[in-house]
Amino acid sequence: MIADALFSLMKRKPFRQISVTEICEEAAIGRKTFYRNFELREDVIDFQLDLMRNEYQAELEELPIEQRLSYHFSYIKNNADYFISLYQSGLDQLAYEKFAIILPGAMPRWSDDEVEQEYRSAYITAGIGAIQRVWISRGCRESIDEVVEIARRAQEKQIPIR
After folding, report:
1. Radius of gyration (Cα) for the chain, nearest Å?
2. Which of 4-18, 57-71, 109-123 is least confident?
3. What is the pTM of this model?
4. Angle at 151 between CA 49 and CA 119, to 5 degrees
C-alpha cells in the first residue's frame, strides 16, 4: 500500500516534493505504520525496485539468451509509468543499479577468460543502460522492436578505442 501510494503521488509531483505525511494520507495509514516498515521515503523506492528486480530476474532466467534483450525492454515498457516517474524525479540511477546486477549473468559467453568476460559484460550492460535511459527520457515512444534493434546495432558498430 505504501509503495503504491508513493508511486501514485510520483505521477503527480516530483519525489523530492513528496512528504511522508502525504504518502501516509494517500495510503490511508498512520505515520507509525510507515515508520514500522521504512525509515525513509527512499527505502520505499528501494523496496519496490527489489520486488520488481526479483520478478524480472525470475522471468529473465527462463528465457533463451536471444530473447533476453527484448524481454528487458518489454519489462520496462510494461512498467513505463514507474520508470518514467523515477527518471523525472532523478531516481533512475537507482533502478539502473538494481537491474545492472542481473544483466551480466544474463549475457552470452564471449570469452573463456573470466576477466575479459566480466569487463565486456560490464561494458555492454552500461550501453544497454544508456539506451534504456534515453528511451525512458523520451517516454518509451519507440516500439520495443525499434529500441532492441538500436541496441543491437550499437553493439555491432562499436567505435574502436585507441
Report:
1. 18
2. 109-123
3. 0.86
4. 75
